[in-house]
Specification:
The structure is a single chain. It is elongated and about 115 Å long. Helix content is about 45%, strand content about 20%. The chain has 23 helices and 22 strands. An eight-stranded mixed beta barrel has the order 13-14-16-17-18-19-20-21, surrounded by five helices. It has a five-stranded parallel sheet with strand order 2-1-3-4-5, with helices on both faces. Strands 7-8-6-11-12 form a five-stranded mixed sheet. The chain folds into three domains: about 15-160, Response regulator (Rossmann fold); about 170-330, Alpha-Beta Plaits, CATH 3.30.70.270; about 355-595, Alpha-Beta Barrel (TIM Barrel), CATH 3.20.20.450. β20 (about 550-555), α22 and β21 (about 575) form a beta-alpha-beta unit. By secondary structure, it is an alpha/beta fold. The structure holds ligand C2E and calcium ion (2 copies).
Length: about 600
């Protein structure tokens, strides 16, 4: 039942708005009918269906009525008073003693005109009466009003009147069901506790009215932050407001999941800190706030949501005590250390190019039939002044999130194309270059232009360049990527699907994407440990790729056994430590020299 809509409208006097509210109340309400005569419940149900009600629970057995109520939790009960065995009075009495049934409104159906009966029912908490035989239009109106009153009461009890956000109990109810889903799927969630530090001072110096307006604006800002933080998109809920609560005068709680990484909760925290540090314009005045945020991770920091929220509050207290640059803290020490490292990586990456801290390494791509190197995959390396060596697995995802991957990716493409063009002329063969492209680059509006520019300036031929995109990336929002892939393809370059087998490919998209190459992920090659091994999945991947006209590359080949196995499966190319680790250009020269001895050097 849509309870939020009542009482929160911006235009309470707007008739059409009100009609719409009633309509949604009616269509979502579940009506329970308890009457010992089936004909009565049938007639009532027919009346009500005509009024737009759709959900009914009817029973003629008064002995079972309470059990059914506990199970189905109707929004309103239409109760006959005179029934054998258990009377309507008995049911009313029991309902009022039951904490869960207590709030359900009851409308009494009675043929009795007896004032005493009515008084007794009222005393027992009945909301309204309907005289039997029931008049259809009276029934509809009384029921509607009862539902509206219940919704209003629900609103008062469960929602903060100032901000419209859920109060703790209502919030916990939603959180518990989110938590159950997270547990089922073995995924993480996060609770954030957000404290508006200077609300008390603002109330004191500027008056409560400004303080109230600030809280309203602040809560809307919170919603906006949650909606627009891409790092927590996986936790996106239809109604963001159900994941936020006002849990104190100057305190808010947020619970959401699933998160791709628990550290993404820190991304949201930073976003909230930055966005709410902008002044709020209230009554023509600029009001500044500052917040402190604590984060607790589900289920690692607590498996129970109330405890989790409490731990987030404790983390917030740590952030306050600590003072210093960061206005948020995790509950666990390890998460804090990790979060500090991530921030250092983010900061370091911003100047990595200009400080010349990035390097390109090259790993040979080898033809399985001739055993000769046919080209290389460019792989980035970063040696940071502050952090030392940072592996691409550690920083590439961070660079993707911050968007740094766009300039970094353009840089590596340019460096590698210049180098590869030089190898083409030095060793006089059709050297092929592969460069990894992140989905962020694919979605960058300048991508096609950037690639074209690099090809033009380096003189590297388009048909010898392969752009590698990981399976998971292109398959997510596959439909929207088709056009982008075609645009890239129109430059004359080749496209490859990387880490194949780790994502969830849709076969129909595999066919619709303009792909030239498929790289079987290392994890499948790793499985090949003996000559006798059977690998039906790898065999199927190879044959699927070939049927789609694609070349197949085996990644991470480390042993002769693996090499021979992939040869046997008629895979065309391989990469792996068996030939060479990724090396800097100078070392790669030596590998090429071996396969393509230069005339001049002879
Ligand atoms: P990837 O594109 O799947 O690259 C292959 C990774 O496997 C490389 O790790 C490579 O060093 C490693 N590898 C190759 N042969 C073997 C082997 O025989 N055994 C083992 N154990 N590993 C092998 P690396 O260089 O650490 O790169 C990791 C990932 O980082 C790459 O996976 C790629 O997704 C990303 N990456 C690296 N450079 C770039 C880049 O310039 N741009 C983008 N967007 N991503 C990059
Ligand atoms: Ca790759
Ligand atoms: Ca790969």
């Amino acid at each position: 039942m849509n309870m939020r809509s009542i009482g929160t409208s911006d235009h309470p006097d707007d008739g059409t708005d009100e009609d719409a509210q009633y309509e949604s109340l009616i269509s979502s309400a579940t009506i329970m009918l308890v009457d010992d005569e089936p004909i009565n419940t049938e007639v009532l149900q027919t009346y009500l269906q005509g009024e737009g009600y759709t959900n009914f629970i009817a029973t003629c057995e008064s002995t079972k009525a309470l059990d059914i109520m506990r199970q189905k939790r109707p929004d309103v009960v239409l109760l006959d008073l005179m029934m054998p065995d258990v009377s309507g009075f008995d049911i009313l009495t029991a309902m009022r003693r039951d904490r869960k049934l207590h709030p359900i409104p009851v409308v009494i159906l009675t043929s009795s005109d007896d004032a005493e009966t009515k008084l007794k029912a009222l005393q027992l908490g009945a909301m309204d009466f309907l005289a039997k035989p029931v008049d259809a239009s009276e029934l509809a109106l009384r029921l509607r009003n009862t539902l509206a009153a219940k919704a209003y009461q629900h609103q008062l009890v469960n929602y903060d009147q100032l901000t419209g956000l859920p109060k703790l109990d209502a919030f916990l109810e939603v959180a518990a069901s989110t938590a159950a889903t997270l547990k089922e799927n073995n995924t993480n969630g996060a609770a954030l506790h957000i404290y508006v530090e200077n609300l008390k001072n603002i109330n004191k110096s500027m008056g409560r009215e400004i303080g109230n307006k600030l809280l309203q604006a602040f809560s809307r800002k919170l919603e906006q932050c949650i909606r627009s933080t891409e790092a927590i998109r996986s936790a996106f809920v239809a109604d963001v407001r159900t994941s936020i609560a006002r849990t104190g005068g100057d305190k808010f709680s947020v619970f959401l999941g699933p998160l791709e990484s628990p550290q993404n909760a820190a991304v949201l925290a930073r976003r909230i800190i930055i966005d709410t540090s902008e002044p709020f314009l209230l009554d023509g005045q600029q009001i500044f706030t500052s917040v402190k945020i604590g984060i607790a991770i589900f289920p690692d920091d607590a498996g129970n949501t109330l405890e989790l929220i409490h731990n987030a509050e404790t983390a917030m207290a740590h952030a306050r005590e600590r003072g210093g640059a960061e206005d948020y803290a995790f509950y666990s020490a390890e998460m804090n250390a990790e979060s500090t490292k991530i921030l250092a990586i983010e900061t370091g990456l911003r100047t990595a190019i200009e400080r010349e801290e990035l390097r390109v390494t090259y790993q040979p791509k080898v033809d399985l039939r001739t055993d000769k190197i046919i080209g290389a995959e460019a792989l980035i390396r970063w040696v940071s002044g502050e952090l030392g060596f940072v592996g691409p697995d550690e920083f590439v995802t961070i660079a993707e999130r911050t968007g740094q991957i766009v300039p970094i990716g353009a840089w590596i493409l340019e460096q590698a194309c210049i180098q590869a063009a030089q190898w083409r002329s030095t060793y006089a063969f059709d050297f092929r270059l592969a460069v990894n492209v992140s989905i962020k680059q694919l979605h960058d509006s300048d991508m096609v232009k950037t690639v074209q520019n690099v090809l033009d300036t380096s003189g590297f031929p388009a048909h010898c360049l392969t752009l590698e995109l990981t399976e998971g990336m292109v398959m997510e929002n596959a439909e929207s990527n088709i056009e982008l892939l075609h645009q890239l393809k129109s430059l004359g370059v080749k496209l490859s699907i990387d880490d194949f087998g780790t994502g969830y490919s849709s076969l129909s998209y595999l066919q619709r994407f303009p792909l030239d190459e498929l790289k079987i992920d290392r994890s499948f090659i790793e499985e090949v440990k003996s000559e006798a091994i059977r690998t039906p999945i790898v065999r199927a991947m190879v044959s699927l790729a070939h049927d789609l006209g694609m070349t197949v590359v085996a990644e991470g080949v480390e042993t002769e056994i693996q090499l021979n196995h992939m040869k046997m499966l008629e895979c065309e190319l391989f990469q792996g430590y068996l030939c060479s680790k990724p090396v800097i250009a100078k070392a790669f020269d030596a590998l090429l020299e071996n396969d393509y001895p230069r005339q001049s050097a002879a």
